[in-house]
Structures are given as structure tokens and as C-alpha cells.
Design goal:
With 194 residues, the protein is α/β, with parallel strands linked by helices. It contains eight helices and nine strands. It has a single domain, classed as 3-Layer(aba) Sandwich (Rossmann fold), CATH 3.40.50. A four-stranded parallel beta sheet has the order 3-2-4-5, sandwiched between helices. A three-stranded antiparallel beta sheet has the order 1-6-9. Strands 7-8 form a two-stranded antiparallel ribbon. The longest helix has 14 residues.
């Protein structure tokens, strides 16, 4: 585990923010995250929910183009994908809690009711080192799910019909009587902005 001490840091010169307008029932749009981030000097990629994209590739491309900070306005899954790239590249990472639950943002003490408040980290942030976890090759920021819950939340219908999706998937999943193997290992920590 890394030391959890906040340290003031200089403002990023070329911040890059990925915004998922669908996360959290449209939180990013309601709080004008993309517009406010641009006003603070960030380059912003507004995701098109109808066009699935490889976020890790997008983040690596932003780094190759000179980004000195990566950020995400979305939920924990999207946060984790980009945090993994930031860690590999040695860049700070900004969490904008625009998802549904935002467990990671809650653990960091960020205001989940007003995700735009986290944009302050683009110009006046503090650094906090946190551990990243891996489930196989997939990175996660503070929690990971496997088994029935993971199968449920990955189903595209789950967001709009939680009960119906659960009723459809859970009996089938439980009838298999065999789940995935779980193996735990520890890897390096990453520093990011809060």
C-alpha cells in the first residue's frame, strides 16, 4: 500500500479529459463538464455512446500528442481503463465523478453530487498516490467484481432494467455451478490528482 498524503502540485500544461455523457444518467452533460474543462484549458474528448471506442488507445494517443495529465468524467470502469494508461506513462490522473456510483471518487473524498467541483484539479490540484489493482490484465482503481454481479453489470440491458436483467441472467449463471478462478497479486502504485 502506498502512503496516502496529499501534496500540492503545479497545474498541468496540456490536460486531456475523456468525458462519457451517458455515465451516471447524463451527469457530465447536466454539469457541463466538457465545456467547463475546455474553459480551464483542457483538451476534451466527448465520447459518442453509439460508437464504442478503445479508451486505452485514445489515452495513449493523447499522451503521444503531448498530454501531461489524463482525466476521465465517467464511472469507475472508465476511470480504471485510463488510470492504467496514466500509471504506465507516469502521468497524473484526474477523477471527475460523473458515473452512477463512483466508488473511487467517494473513497477519494470527492463531491459526487457536483462532479464539476473536481475540475479544480486541472488548475489547482493536489497529488495522492494510490494503488492500482489488476484482475488478469484488466486494471481496477479500488474495487473489482467477478461472478454474478460482474456478469450483470456488463450486460448492456442492466443500466435501464436492473431487475429484469437480474431475473434473466442470475438463474442461468447460478445453474452453471462453476465460476471463474480468482488469483490475487500486487503491482505498483500510481499517483494522481484529487
Amino acid at each position: 500500500m502506498t502512503e496516502n498524503t496529499f501534496r500540492p502540485v503545479a497545474a498541468a500544461l496540456r490536460p486531456y479529459l475523456i468525458v462519457n455523457p451517458r455515465s451516471g444518467g447524463g451527469k457530465a452533460s447536466r454539469f457541463r463538464i466538457a465545456e467547463k474543462a475546455r474553459e480551464l484549458g483542457a483538451q476534451v474528448l466527448l465520447l459518442d455512446p453509439s460508437q464504442p471506442q478503445d479508451l486505452a488507445t485514445i489515452a495513449r494517443r493523447a499522451v503521444d500528442d503531448g498530454a501531461d495529465l489524463l482525466g476521465v468524467a465517467a464511472g469507475d470502469g472508465t476511470q480504471a481503463l485510463v488510470a492504467g494508461v496514466a500509471a504506465k506513462c507516469g502521468l497524473p490522473f484526474v477523477v471527475i465523478p460523473a458515473g452512477t456510483r463512483n466508488h473511487f471518487a467517494m473513497d477519494l473524498g470527492l463531491d459526487r453530487e457536483d462532479p464539476s467541483a473536481a475540475l479544480e484539479a486541472l488548475t489547482d490540484g493536489v497529488e495522492l498516490c494510490v494503488d492500482l489493482g489488476f484482475a488478469g490484465e484488466r486494471v481496477f482503481v479500488n474495487n473489482v467484481s467477478f461472478g454474478a454481479y460482474a456478469a450483470l453489470v456488463q450486460d448492456p440491458a442492466y443500466r435501464d432494467d436492473k431487475i429484469g436483467t437480474t431475473a434473466r441472467i442470475l438463474p442461468e449463471f447460478l445453474a452453471r455451478h462453476k465460476g471463474p478462478e480468482l488469483v490475487g497479486t500486487r503491482r505498483a502504485a500510481h499517483c494522481g490528482r484529487a
